[in-house]
Automatic annotation (TrEMBL), chain A:
The chain crosses the membrane at residues 32-51, 189-213, 243-268, 280-306, 318-338, 369-392. Its main location: membrane. InterPro entries: ABC2_TM. The keyword Membrane applies. The keyword Transmembrane helix applies. Pfam families: ABC2_membrane_3. It is a multi-pass membrane protein. Residues 41-383 form the ABC-2 type transporter transmembrane domain. It is found in: Membrane. This is ABC transporter permease. It comes from Rhodanobacter hydrolyticus. The lineage of its organism: Bacteria, Pseudomonadati, Pseudomonadota, Gammaproteobacteria, Lysobacterales.
TrEMBL record, chain B:
Keywords: ATP-binding, Nodulation, Nucleotide-binding, Transport. It comes from Rhodanobacter hydrolyticus. CDD domains: ABC_NatA_sodium_exporter. PANTHER family: ABC TRANSPORTER ATP-BINDING PROTEIN (PTHR42711), ABC TRANSPORTER ATP-BINDING PROTEIN NATA (PTHR42711:SF5). Pfam families: ABC_tran. One of its GO terms (molecular function) is ATP binding. This is ATP-binding cassette domain-containing protein. InterPro entries: AAA+_ATPase, ABC_transporter-like_ATP-bd, ABC_transporter_ATP-binding, P-loop_NTPase. Belongs to the ABC transporter superfamily. PROSITE patterns: ABC_TRANSPORTER_2.
Amino acid sequence: MNAVASKARRAGAMLTVFLKEVRENLRDRRTVLSAFITGPLLGPVLFVMLINMQVSMQLDKIDKPLHVPVIGAQYAPHLLDALREGGIVSDAAVADPGQAVRKQDADVVLRIAADYGAAWRKGEPVQVEMFYDSSRQDTSSAVERVQKLVEAYARQQGAMRLVARGMSPGTAWPVLVAKRDQATPQSRAVLLFAMLPYFFVIALFIGGMPLAIDLTAGERERQSLEPLFANPVARWKILAGKLAAICAFSCASLAITLFAFAVVGQFIPAEKLGMELDLGWHFAGTVLLLMLPLVLLLASLQSLVAAFAKSYREAQTYVSLLMMVPAIPSALLAFLPIKAQSWMYAVPLLGQNLGIMQQLRGDGIAADQLMLCLAGTLAAALVAMGVTAQIYRSERLAISG
Amino acid sequence: MIEVRNLHKAFGTVKAVDGVGFTARDGEITGLLGPNGAGKTTTLRMLYTLMQPDDGQVLVDGIDAAADPLAVRRALGVLPDARGLYKRLTARENIEYFARLHGIDEATLRKRHDALVDALEMRDILDRRTEGFSQGQRVKTAIARALIHDPRNVILDEPTNGLDVMATRGLRRFMQQLKAEGRCVLFSSHIMQEVAALCDRIVVIAHGRVVADETPDALRAQTGETNLEDAFVKIIGTDEGLAA
């Protein structure tokens, strides 16, 4: 009977701490704002803006007529006709084509030599000069477009000359490249959406951060840990209650982010980029599952880092630095062509990243990869919790003065 | 009853508490008097198991603090040096939080809550958030929170610190009431008049050691001084850190 009562009391203490922390933090406007609004919505809003920018840029490039200054246009009227058909408007000649490109007055400039007509009639190769700046990435599609049109014109004219001499055009092109692009609409999306997993981690982070700081450094600064520890409750139970509160806030934050992504995902014109994006319920559920052990790990790490700080401000600085860490796997995967090895799934953050990307590619995550990811992160979370519990037991922690 | 035997605690090379021992009995108010930095707060922190003594023993109602710290904390009501209220909670919520941590049932909580609120005269501030409380209101809330589980032993670390005259008088009345209820009250102070006015027994601590453990009258007789202030100065050997 007594054992049952004391067992109920033990669970009660943890629940009491949890409920009090949740209630207290829900009353803090700044915490609520950052955990439930700015934190979780930052990602989706940024995402939509980026994607729309990308889409409109791509569409602009394709549909809009491209203005290209042409020097010596009068020497090659047929070439210019061909360019015009390809949507290129020849502008008035510029004096110094190199400078015009350098000063960004023009994306690309064409120069046709004065002897173009004479050479053409003799059937000799003629030269068309193209001025551009390959370090200006935004002009690359314009440059490519002009180059392709000129080359297509050259091939077409070459073929006609061969036919006129009674030869098959095939003799001039013994090898042809046939492109077989294996990208699916989903996998094309991946490149663009490489930062998506980081947004989810950020949501977790920002959701839990005010609590993690408040529950250790903040409580110490308020000098409320000492009276709290004078209660007949083991410290690990107090810690467990507090960690649960942090986890609850980060989970709520993540859920809001996922929901927001599911909603805005409907409005992202991904098909216009030849991509397919599925941010629906199945995706959200998988992400939530992948992230669950990470919630615990981040909550422990945040509390641990905050416990070392003497004041709220100091803790804020430390925890913000900690926030840089989850960016590493996202950056690595975005810029380095890493082929996923199975052990990578066991690495916290990296595993989640890979899993989410795989889900985005439309491949789905295999059961063993999922297990590896969950187990690896959970193990790390348990270690982090153990270390945090040790720090929490130290005498130094409670004493404010 | 609180029994302290030969407590030692060092921080690095500094011996904060160096062989403190005394007994605080039920139905008595025991004052722990000493200049600032004498080791009072460290001693009390070992009593309520926030710190572990390097050596020595603490017994609360016969329970060894090293063996069963939870039982000791259950038997104690503690107002630490750090009051630390939760400013986004009301006074009532602060008190109820600690009551639940003690695991006391709702009926007992109501009864005890009402008794404390009346005794401390704090009904008017109960449902206000503690942010912006005066020092006196803060101490009242912290004491109510500390005593909600009806402990037999009460430890108050410098309870009158920062209080005005009215609040101090109210608090003294409250301590007398605790004594009349048969509780063991142990409080620390560096204010001699307060100790003289309240205590049945005075334990004087200086440099981490007990330099006197007597009734106020015995102290006067021992030192040959009729004035308690002079008696203290004589015992401690210096008047540094003592406030009148």
